[in-house]
Amino acid sequence: MIISKDNSKYKMWLKLSQKKYRQKEQLFLVEGEHLVFEAKKSGVIVDVLLCEGISFDIDAPVTYLTKPLFEKLTSTITSTGIMAVCRMQEGKTNFPQGDINLPQRDIEKNNRLLLVDGVRDPGNLGTLIRSALAFGFDRLVVSEDTVDIYNEKVVRATQGALFNIAIDRKNLINYVADLQKLGVIVYATNLNNDAKMMSDITPAEYMAFVVGNEGAGIRESLVEVCDGSITIEMSSCVESLNVGVAGSILMYHFNGLN
User: Fold this and answer.
1) Closest Cα partner for 219 from 134, 116, 68, 96?
2) DSSP 3-state of 134
3) Domain 8-87 belongs to what topology?
4) Are strands 196-197 and 207-212 parallel, antiparallel or unpaired?
């Protein structure tokens, strides 16, 4: 039982709410029974943190905290009293942030990829991660200025999906060029006059799709290096869709489930 706010481990856990400390320690927090169990299945748990009085059966190291200390650590208004400290596992399929690993001629499972350019809202990124897993996409690659995938709101919005899909952080312009050399067709979601309707695109074996920032969309320099632009058919009453919704529709249409 930790009873003092001056405990060294507790002080470090508090700092994990900040991206720079998450990166420094290579640790992040998850909260709630479901996410803790998903983390356990992926083998990334360092410590399970329980509020005093909470009973939780899990085969992992457990540390109890007094209620005031736990409440200061939690990011939710109505906490379940269950959290876990988890390792960032770079390069691992279950929670990767490593490099692309595509053979020159046989891309195998990496035949559907989502590239995320400058998305800042944690809920949107969480939705995209969850939808990518649901619709059989093999990997997400996020730009250097996209919200941190270990942000507690992103983690919560994925509902555990991020433990089961590869996620990389890359310079997307360079990455698109690498994909094209491997024969991957890359489409940018765009509303420009040259964009083709989603239903007019013939699915190819290897495809990647780029979605962009909530307000500005995809950077023009990135659009220019893609193989083409694509748009979703919509009623004339609607100007655009939320990036989480648009990306999910796109991934459903070009799903990699078959």
Assistant:
1) 116
2) helix
3) 60s Ribosomal Protein L30; Chain: A; (3.30.1330)
4) unpaired
Q: What does pTM read for this prediction?
A: 0.86
142-187 per-position pLDDT tens digit: 999 999 999 999 999 999 998 888 888 999 999 999 899 888 999 9
Per-residue pLDDT tens over the stretch 197-233: 998 999 998 999 999 998 888 999 999 999 999 998 8
160-185 burial, b if ≥16 CB within 10 A, otherwise e?
bbbbebbbbbbebeebbeebeeeebb
Cβ pair 141, 97 in contact under 8 A: no
What is the 8-class DSSP label of residue 76?
S
Q: In whole angstroms, what is the distance from residue 197 CA to residue 199 CA?
A: 5
Nearest to 187 by CA among 198, 249, 136: 198
CA distance 216 to 223: 12
Question: Which fold does the domain 112-253 belong to in CATH?
Answer: Alpha/beta knot (3.40.1280)
Query: Residue 224 corresponds to which tokens in the numbers above?
Result: 């220019």
Largest CA distance in the chain: 62
Amino acid at 228: G
Q: Which residues, at least 6 apart from 247, have a Cβ–Cβ distance to it below 8 Å?
A: 114, 116, 127, 128, 131, 189, 209, 211
Give backbone dihedrals phi and psi of 90, rounded to 5 degrees, phi first: -70, 135
